[in-house]
Amino acid sequence: MTKNIRVFFTAFFFVAIASLLVNNGASKLADFFFWNELATDSTLLTAQAAQQKLQEQAFQSLPLLKKNVPALELSSRAALSLIIDAKGNARALYEKNSEVSLPIASLTKLMTALVARENYSLQDTILISKNAVEKEESFGNLQVGEKLSVENLLYVMLIESSNDAAVALSELMGENAFLGRMNSKAKNLNLEHTFFVDVAGVDPAESNGLLNRSSAMDLAIIASYLLEQYPEVFHILSLKEAGSLINTNELLSYTQWPTPILGGKTGWTPRANGALLLVLESPKKTGYLVNVILGSDARFEEMKQLVNWVFRSYSWTF
Length: 318
Fold this sequence. Notes:
Blueprint: H1 3-23, H2 27-40, H3 42-60, E1 64-65, E2 78-85, E3 90-96, E4 102-103, H4 109-119, E5 125-127, H5 130-133, E6 147-149, H6 150-159, H7 163-171, H8 175-188, E7 213-214, H9 216-229, H10 231-237, E8 241-242, E9 245-246, E10 261-269, E11 273-281, E12 287-296, H11 299-313, E13 314-315
Antiparallel strand pairs: 1-13, 2-3, 2-12, 4-7, 5-6, 8-9, 10-11, 11-12
Helix pairs in contact: 1-2, 1-3, 2-3, 4-6, 4-8, 6-7, 7-8, 9-10
């Protein structure tokens, strides 16, 4: 038996004795003997520190994939479930084509919101233009000539996924300049699979025109950045309704998961198909889960399958 092993078992013996005494109602006596021994033998203190470090490393490995877990088969083009702990450490719990660049439709508006928050005050006022109102779709009921704050437009854009509101936000600095900021921010965040050609994420009129593209992993990074830097954005994304606004994300009413939903964003166009990002608090409040579905014919159902599989397939405690 080596010296290190003898030290470890000696430390373990004293920890066990102290625990036994505590359980027998003699905690003060146990503390006296245990800490007195540590004071006289520094090797025990070293061993205890090593043991504590091993325990911390073990807890950092949570959650642990259970044995013989059936594989999850999703028909979506890409999917990802990423756990991010309180220190910002990230680990993929499920991946399917998570690094493939795909059309993202209105998930674009996550970056639109990010750039708006980094460049505007929430109290800045924007005059709604004819150009903004004529953008494809009419969610948000914006009227030419009315004035709305940046904060109000964020609510309209993120809850009802209004393309008009996205354009209006961009026009405060100029649509092209705003689009440039979106792509610059993508580079700044090292999003290698992300590129924007439209501030709202609509399909171009030309069938072969360029589309906004990103990967499931890049979108998870954008969501994580927003959560950390601009939590008010995810507060908006967590609201089922606000006044007359009704959220396009039907999963906000889903209550069958063991942890609360922190927010999410929907997206759909003919060329991108269904897209969905959903963030939940992780068990034991140790961080959060970012879940992404891209290119799906049934985005809400497949998101349920993904999140259910993650909760069912991993052990969250020892």
